[in-house]
Amino acid sequence: MKRPPIQRPENRKSTRNKAGQALLESFAIMMLLCLILFGIVQYVLMLTATEVVQYSADASVRARAVGFNHFMVYKASMVARIPLAGRMTTPGTYTTGANWNHQMSAGNSYFTAIASNPSSDQYTQAEHIAIPQFLNSDHGYLFYYLDYNDSRDESERRWRTWHAPSYYTGNGVINLSLRHDYLVNMPFARAFMSDDVLDIHQRARLADHAELYLQ
Questions:
Q1: Does the pLDDT value for residue 191 go beyond 80?
Q2: pTM to 2 decimals?
Q3: 27 versus 118: which is more confidently predicted?
Q4: So where are the chain's domains?
Q5: Which one of 33, 118, 162, 213 has the largest count of C-beta atoms within 10 Å of its C-beta?
Q6: Per-residue pLDDT tens for 142-170?
Q7: Which residues are 169's β-sheet partners?
Q8: Segment 185-203 mean pLDDT
Q9: Are 158 and 152 in contact (CB under 8 A)?
Q10: Residue 99 CA: distances (Å) to CA of 91, 96, 126, 146
Q11: Cβ(46)–Cβ(182) under 8 Å?
Q12: Across residues 57-61, what is the average pLDDT?
């Protein structure tokens, strides 16, 4: 009669090694998945930035086509790129709807109304009022009405140094080009890029209507 095989106790050291190996493998897979996820999100953000810059180029060439000067074309290009501008710094606070309307109807100035109301939706209570004043301002007061900060360094405001459109007119057609330095903030971006700034370059063409009508 054969004896049943003797069951030896499992090696506890081997079990611990397998658990540690599984943990490392799971961590490596999670890091790879996060890298892929962040890469996809950053790619979509870059595509969006490209479309915004293209829209800015289109708005700029339209502004030039109706006879605006270079400074006005520059301001139009900046307003069209506001979605890429980052955190608003001027006006510093936003306003609540009912209280804002009361302040403005009472004859108070724009900045008094801003200062007396603590918070609100950015566009409906601040930007849609500040943008026309920004477009109507001259060089000295340009950023007094509207300013943004899209830099990691609080002391550096890249909004103020955005590239102005360049254009020339030939055969009755305005050819405009616009460069934009898009700041990449997504984690692990250096895994896909050699720099954290993407140079976006877009072009637009439109007939020079001002040459025909503004003689």
A1: no
A2: 0.71
A3: 27
A4: 19-86+150-213, 94-138
A5: 162
A6: 888 888 875 555 445 568 888 999 999 98
A7: 174
A8: 77
A9: no
A10: 17, 6, 13, 21
A11: yes
A12: 95
| Alpha-carbon distances of 176 from 37, 40, 81, 159, 183, rounded to whole Å | 36, 31, 16, 20, 23
Say if CB 146 and CB 90 are below 8 A apart.
Answer: yes
d(CA 144, CA 160): 11
DSSP state of 123: I
- Residue 175 DSSP one-character state: E
Instruction: Name the percent of the chain lying above pLDDT 70.
Output: 66
Find tokens 């405009």 and name the residue.
176
DSSP 49-110: HHHHHHHHHHHHHHHHHTT--HHHHHHHHHHHTGGGS-EEEES-S---HHHHHHHHHTT--H
- pLDDT value, residue 189: 66
For residues 111 and 94, the answer to whether their CB atoms sit within 8 Å is: no
Distance CA 85, CA 190 (A): 22
Q: Among 215, 177, 179, which Cα is nearest to 199's?
A: 179
Question: In b/e form, how buried is each residue of 106-136, taking b as 16+ CB within 10 angstroms?
Answer: eeeeeeebbeebeebeeeebbbebbbeebbe
What sign has the CA pseudo-torsion 32, 38, 44, 46? negative
Q: φ, ψ for residue 184 (rounded to 5)?
A: -95, 115
Please state the φ and ψ torsions of residue 214, each to the nearest 5 degrees: -110, 70
Phi, then psi, of 182 in degrees rounded to 5: -90, 120
